Each structure stands twice: as C-alpha cells, then as structure tokens.
C-alpha cells in the first residue's frame, strides 16, 4: 500500500446550510425527479441538525429516487454542463457496496465529508480497506454529485475524486472492475473539444492508481427531520 503523502492544502468554503441546499435542489428540479414535494424537502432540511463536531452536513437524495444519469447533467464547471462518459451507459446500475448501508428514506444526511486528497496515487483496491479501517465510509457516485452541486469548489483540476462506494455487480456476482469518479474533462477523445473543462462522470480500473484522484468519504449517514416515506 502506498504511503500517505500530504496533498497541497485546499481551503474549501463551508457547505451551505441544509435549508440553502434544499433550495438549490428545488431550483434544479431534483425534488421532482425524486418524487418529493418542495414542501417536504424544505421540512426535512429545516429539521436537520448540525453534527456534534460542528461540521457541515450534506443533504442527499437516495439513488433509487434520483439516479446519477439524472444528476450529472446538472453539474456545472466553467459554464459547462456535466456529462457521463459514453462507455458508462450502465451508470445507474452501479449500486452501494454491501458494506455501505443507506438509510431507508428518500432523503438523508452525510457528515464528515473528506475529498481524500491524501490518498491520491492509491488504487481503489488499496483505498477501500484503508477507509474502512478508519471507520470512514466511501461516498456513492450520487453523493459525490450532490456534493459538487452544493459546493462546486470541491471539484478542481488535479484534485478530483473517486466515489468507490458505488460498484456494479456482474451476472455471476463478482464486482465489475470499473470504479466511478468525478473529474474535469480535458476535451479529448470521445468527450469532444466542446466539453473541455466540463464536469465528467467517468470510471477507472479498481487496480489502477491516479495521482490526481482522491477518495471521497464521510463519517456517517443518517436520516433527520420528518418521515417522508
């Protein structure tokens, strides 16, 4: 396993308050995709409590309600809309690992977000057990998209991230070797020059290392606010 080397410090602004995050999702129409009313979303956000450590919380929609294919085009970077790479047409089949249980609710909260810059240069196969040993949970692809929607500065060149909590199982039960990630397109190859600087949902092999990809994780997932069913 590679040594952890401190990455150059990147100072990110705090996450918006849950109420502001709710308004952002309403503005983007995510609540309609999820089948949740604006009133319900606002009520959930209003009831969300701050974590004990004083950090921010991320409001997320369950991937069964708002899949990655619906969320990715809402991303923006340098004025360009987000997209999913052409060879990931099955993006919505990437599901949570068995070790990443989700709240049984359409809306939930994540605490203790970390982009995982210190693990840049690790492979997903190396990063997952290390995160587990630290009692951290890897982000799902949809959670990573929600993070960028609410805090666009988290996605920057040379400091992008993987979301290895989402994996695809093949027919026999084995994991597909692709692991999803969110980064910024260079506008090369099948991306097309018009997509240079656009936010990109793509994948990397589970055994490969990339110096510009960290491993996004959180400390906890929890429900909060009223039961939305």
What can be said about this structure in brief?
22% of the residues lie in helices and 21% in strands. With 229 residues, it is of the alpha+beta class.
Strand and helix map with partners:
Blueprint: H1 18-28, H2 30-34, H3 38-47, E1 57-61, H4 68-71, E2 76-77, E3 80-81, E4 83-84, E5 95-96, E6 107-111, H5 124-133, E7 137-138, H6 141-150, E8 160-162, E9 166-167, E10 178-184, E11 199-205, E12 213-215, E13 217-218, E14 220-222
Parallel strand pairs: 4-11, 8-12
Antiparallel strand pairs: 1-6, 2-3, 5-9, 6-14, 7-13, 8-10, 10-11
Distance between the termini: 43 Å
Mean pLDDT across every amino acid position: 91
Which outline best applies? globular
Task: Estimate percent helicity.
Answer: 10-25%
Characterization of the model:
The protein is an alpha+beta fold. It is 22% helix and 21% strand. The protein contains 6 helices and 14 strands. It has a 5-stranded mixed β-sheet with strand order 4-11-10-8-12, covered by helices on one side. A 3-stranded antiparallel β-sheet has the order 1-6-14. The chain is globular and about 40 Å long. The C terminus is likely disordered.
Distinctive features:
229 residues, alpha+beta, 5-stranded mixed beta sheet, 3-stranded antiparallel beta sheet, 6 helices, 22% helix, globular
